[in-house]
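Progress note, sequence design subtask.
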């Protein structure tokens, strides 16, 4: 059984997303609720593309 992936604050990619959410609040002036609405919109609009990237993983050639 696969273990569900969770946030890892020591993972720089996870930390980057957290930083971006914090900037939406502190720089863009969004409320935390609004920042999570933006995150939900990003998830909806990028899921298909990310799925295609994952599907193509291993099919690419690198020099």
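Output:
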């Amino acid at each position: 059984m696969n273990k569900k992936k969770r946030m890892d604050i020591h993972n720089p990619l996870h930390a980057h997303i957290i930083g971006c959410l914090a900037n939406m609040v502190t720089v863009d002036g969004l409320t935390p609720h609004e920042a999570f609405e933006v995150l939900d919109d990003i998830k909806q609009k990028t899921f298909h593309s990310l799925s295609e990237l994952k599907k193509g993983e291993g099919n690419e050639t690198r020099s």
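The chain has two helices and no strands. Work on this subtask will continue into the next period as scheduled.
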